[in-house]
UniProtKB/TrEMBL annotation:
Domain free text: A pair of annexin repeats may form one binding site for calcium and phospholipid.
Coiled-coil stretches noted in the UniProt entry, renumbered to this chain: none
Protein name, as recorded: Annexin
Molecular function (Gene Ontology), one example: calcium ion binding
Amino acid sequence: MATAKIHFKPYFDEVMAAEHLEKALRNKEKLKILEILVSVNNTQRQMIRTPYKTRYGKDLEEEIKKAFSGDFEDFLVALLQTPTKLDVTELNRAVKGLGTNEKNLIEILTTRTNEEIEATKNTYFMTYGKSLEDAISADTSGDFRRLLIIILQAKREESGFADSFKVGNHAAQILKSFDKKSGVEKFEAFKIFATANGAHAQKVIEEVERQSGKEFQKLAEKELSGDFKNLILSLIETSRNKPRFLANSIHLATKGMGTRDKDLIRILVSRSENDLVLIEHEFQVLFGKPLTQLIKEECKAEYRDGLTMLVKGNTRP
């Protein structure tokens, strides 16, 4: 199988790409469809949609949904979304219906930049006619909800500068919150991780460990609970090493009985053209095998081929 390169393709002809896609769709040529969609970047995929509709009077995404089903359909549809629209769809899926998928809310919101969160909020409102904050508020509760709302304000400090005076204060507040008599709420002490940059968060963690003589993660696991604890631990991990956090998320999607393919598709597609190369490296370090090997073990047929092409196509040219 030829390795597709997911970078801007020079001399790209979106009209010709639309024609080739229509022919491949008519003949159910799955590999041909993959080659067309995975050989160009997301911007160029969007460019195919208009000439396809103009020439054939049909929506490309709807035609793919009619032609295919299951994981292969989900993968192709994800490829056709802009990164923002994919996040919007996945966040809505996490809060709609019975129960909330807290894990997916945490994964998406802790790994996006302020700019990406703002774009997602705007698109969510335009798509569903209500704010993302309202949708998440209606489906979550307690300190978990309060911390998610802080993240949704998209005010995380992104400079990479750690203020040593504030580091001491934040560490002291966290340590005080472990004493019920201190009057310091755990939420108030730990909320810094939703707004601090990675360097500052790591300095706070180091200071807490220095003063307590204990591992920060073990302290957090002992003192916090539920979704709030999971959100804090995820904020800490992403501040330390976002690609490693996402590599571990991929592993968790394939652990146990059956593969959570929607999670696998979301992570690989949303991080392609972003940090998938780094995630692939971290996966190899953490689990001692290439990400492509995991895909081969867990997925089948053209769906497997598509994910493999996506991972290989993100290798730097």
